[in-house]
Design a protein that fits this description.
Number of strands: 4
Helix content: 40-55%
Oligomer: single chain
Strand content: 5-15%
Shape: globular
Largest sheet: 2 strands, parallel
Radius of gyration: 19 Å
Length: about 150
Amino acid sequence: MGPEKVQEKEKEIIGKWPNTYTFTKSLTEKVLQKRSAHLKIVIIRPSIVISSANEPFLGWTENISAMGGLIFAIMLGLINYLQCREDLILDSVPVDTVSNLILAATAYTATKGIPGKVLVMHSTSSNSHPSSVKMICETVLEYLKYNQSIK
């Protein structure tokens, strides 16, 4: 099937999934479940990964994808208006938190995991440290008071 035909039939192919990203994630997890009878496997599902909270230093990042891209565009003045509810929670988690979970989950799975049982762990922040759109925008604006873009 060619790319045009795939695009045409996308909704039919992905079914209940909202997009191809979530569809292919689901397919991958199903394949792992089906073919991992002798393996100990852990899947880490982070929410929106943002720059670091502590390690290697506060604010460290190597790219501007996901929320970082949005914040970068705001900081450059490319975006100066967001149409959304300010109380909306954007569930984000620092990259060093995700990295630490990967290390801990790997050690746990290696020592206590059960072959054939795929362990799934989520790395999110909403319950303990929710980040609202208002709080994120206020933080960015406060940062910009002292660190203006030269652009």
